[in-house]
Specification:
This protein is α/β, with parallel strands linked by helices. It has eight helices and eight strands; from the N terminus they run H-H-H-E-H-E-H-E-E-H-E-H-E-E-E-H. It has two domains: about 230 residues, Rossmann fold; about 40 residues, no CATH class. It is globular and about 75 Å long. The structure holds S-adenosylmethionine.
Amino acid sequence: MPRPEDSGPPELFYNIDEAKKYTSNSRIIEVQQQMSERAFELLALPEDCPALILDLGCGSGLSGEVLEENGHFWVGCDISQAMLDVALEREMEGDVIQSDLGQGVGMFRPGMFDGAISVSALQWLCNSNSSAENPFRRLFIFFTTLYSCMKRNSKVVLQFYPDSPQQAELIVKQATRAGFNGGLMVDFPNSSKAKKVYLVLSCGDATFQMPKALGEDDGSQCVYTANERVRQGRVNKKTLTRKQWVLKKKDRMRRQGKQVANDSKYTGRKRSKKF
Ligand SMILES: C[S@@+](CC[C@H](N)C(=O)[O-])C[C@H]1O[C@@H](n2cnc3c(N)ncnc32)[C@H](O)[C@@H]1O
């Protein structure tokens, strides 16, 4: 199935029609709410103490609603005005700002937030829609500015859909370079439907321990940190055919905004000796 992220810029994908569909589809609402509740749980905020939480890629406010229901205040950022308009129509309590996460969240005061969540938005930063958009740089700017607006010892939990182990690895690496501790946690790693990936980060807490993933009946943790290779499904060049390897590499270069020749039946074929 094609991924929305491959269809072009997010502000065009999340247009008026998509934004309306998003909050009228009961299946989408249920899934987003479940992931938002899990992200909130992983924040592990102190009980009975209202906090100020940043919602990154807040969209129409489904994730923000979970924060409100738990008695917290929130501020949301999103690149799509159509999604934010739906959040305003739904009279969400959070304040929302239209902004591109790839340009960072430097508009907030240092140490302003007690926690941050993001649900189904982070993978969009790994795509480039023009040669000027560099996912490495955008992720780094995003994480460094995020680090600065978080309180010391606070947590950030970002659920996202990596399209490959390499993409997940890049995200963890850029978060760690920006100063965060933590890594990836995968709930229900053996279920194709229930599997969900969370980047759980701590801001300056050297004693931080990754939480336990759900659905791990063998008791082992499914956690990746920046110094570890992403274990599950890591693509080994030797297990791919030459053609698969070339196609994958071309795909990665396209996502990095590089000029790449179109695929054809000759792609990845060995050249005959005549060449
Ligand atoms: C799948 S929706 C999730 C919305 C919301 N978190 C929820 O749970 O309903 C992903 C959101 O990420 C936003 N997004 C994607 N790329 C973004 C970017 N570069 N900057 C800000 N928001 C972005 C989209 O506009 C969209 O609203």
